[in-house]
Specification:
about 190 residues; mainly alpha; 11 helices; elongated
Length: about 190
């Protein structure tokens, strides 16, 4: 009696449920995964502002099994970290897992996918963004000429306004025709 450790307050758990696609049990499971990554850094009691203030180093997050093989692991961490550094608070980590959950809708996944591929952050997928995306996906196995050829074809097919880059709307149109996108854009907890 009285020995139960409280990780989050009821209000915190309710707020997390309201802004994620998770149940209380799933939120606690994500926290357990976060805490296991750096037990010396992350306390069990997060009832204060620890969930926003304590940051997990990006190299620890990139090393977790769920991201280790992902060619975009650095970009994923940068996009989901509030300050863009890749270092993540629990709130950032929970957001990432929520967006990558099977319960997250296609439009949320598409919006984050766009941000991940938009390496320069200009709200367009320009030729350099597409080249970097393709190079990451193919693990640097294509020649510069092959990359240029594929990027030309992507722009030819998807750049509806012929401005040499993809807007979010054009990206969304491409993704709507890619049924595998939802299958590859997830992490299981």
């Amino acid at each position: 009696m009285g020995n139960k450790v409280t990780t989050f307050t009821d209000d915190q758990l309710e707020a997390y449920q309201d802004c994620t696609f998770f149940t209380r049990k799933e939120i606690l499971r994500v926290f357990k995964r976060y805490q296991e990554l750096a037990p010396d850094l992350i306390p069990f009691n997060m009832t204060g502002d620890e969930s926003r203030k304590i940051k997990m180093p990006v190299d620890v997050i990139e090393g977790m099994a769920e991201l280790y093989e992902n060619p975009f692991k650095t970009r994923v961490c940068e996009v989901f970290s509030e300050d863009g550094s890749g270092n993540m608070s629990f709130d950032d980590f929970l957001d990432m897992f929520s967006v990558f959950s099977e319960a997250a809708p296609r439009d949320i996944k598409t919006a984050y996918g766009f941000r991940i591929y938009d390496f320069d952050g200009d709200n367009y997928l320009s030729r350099p963004d597409l080249e970097k995306t393709l190079t990451s996906l193919t693990q640097d196995e294509l020649t510069a000429e092959e990359v240029a050829f594929v990027v030309d074809k992507v722009l030819e097919e998807a750049d509806l306004d012929d401005d040499g880059m993809l807007s979010y709307i054009e990206f969304e149109h491409v993704i709507s025709r890619a049924p595998d996108f939802l299958n590859t854009f997830h992490i299981r907890i």
